[in-house]
Amino acid sequence: MPRIALLAPVFAALMFHAAAHAAPVNKCVINGSVTFQEAPCPATQPRRDPTLAELNAAEKQRRAAAASAPGAGAKVPWPSTAPSPSPGPAAAPAPAPGAAPGAFHCDGRQYCSQMRSCAEAQYFLTHCPGVKMDGDHNGIPCEKQWCGR
């Protein structure tokens, strides 16, 4: 039997052991250059985590601002990462006349192909987090499938 065949299981065991105990790699930006290192990235300023009271106060302010803003009840992204809708004559479609106010609920669906009506798509866009139904960010969901002009 060749020696290589005898050493292959030993080599594989050593590589598995080394990979299992490898330190995670951190991607850091230091002086404008990207580096990869095993040690944590150096902090330029000490980080202070917000307290629960501060987080609750910020959430109350955000909800009060959303309630008093025009179009109260509209979805306010938190944190705001989506671009603001472009101003224009397009208005969001009204819910279907036959849809009861509590007919829909957020259940994890995100895409237009999972909706059954324009009213349902509008409800999900307005009330549910993480939906992907308004590609042009104009406030009208599923324009090609359900809420076309």
Note down, in words, how this protein is organized:
The protein is mainly alpha-helical and about 150 residues long. Helices cover about 30% and strands about 5% of the residues. The chain contains 3 helices and 2 strands. The chain has helices spanning about 5-20, 50-70, 120-125, and strands spanning about 25-30, 35. A two-stranded antiparallel ribbon has the order 1-2. Strand 1 (about 25-30) and strand 2 form a beta hairpin. The longest helix has 18 residues, at about 5-20. It is extended, with a radius of gyration of 26 Å.
* Structural class determined from secondary elements: mainly alpha
Largest sheet: 2 strands, antiparallel
Estimated share of beta-strand residues: 5-15%
Give, in spatial order, the strands making up the sheet with the most strands: 1-2
Which segments are poorly predicted (pLDDT under 50) over 5 or more consecutive residues? 80-84, 86-98
Short description:
The protein is mainly α. It has 3 helices and 2 strands, in the order αββαα.
List keywords for this structure.
single chain, extended, Excalibur_Ca-bd_domain, signal, Excalibur calcium-binding domain-containing protein, mainly alpha, 149 residues
List the helices and strands and how they pair.
Blueprint: H1 3-20, E1 26-30, E2 33-37, H2 52-68, H3 118-127
Antiparallel strand pairs: 1-2
